[in-house]
Amino acid sequence: xxxxxxxTHRHDFYELLLFTEVPEGAVHSIDFEENSxxxxxxxxxxxxxxxxxxxxxxxxxxxxxxxx
Length: 68
Known about the structure:
Low-confidence stretches: none
Number of strands: 6
Distance between the termini: 25 Å
Shape: globular
Number of helices: 0
Strand order of the largest sheet: 4-1-6
Mean pLDDT: 85
Largest sheet: 3 strands, antiparallel
Helix content: under 10%
Strand content: over 45%
């Protein structure tokens, strides 16, 4: 299934994000700091971190892991 979160949001779990295809110049924001998104890079988000991304044609995988 497809999930889309609008705006800045936080989760109470870890997220592992692996993007397999991203458009040129793609960025995401972690704790209000913008970072480039690159193909075949793994990003780890800790519970409670503020996150946002402008989704266009991104492809990849997201794994959510409960802290316990």
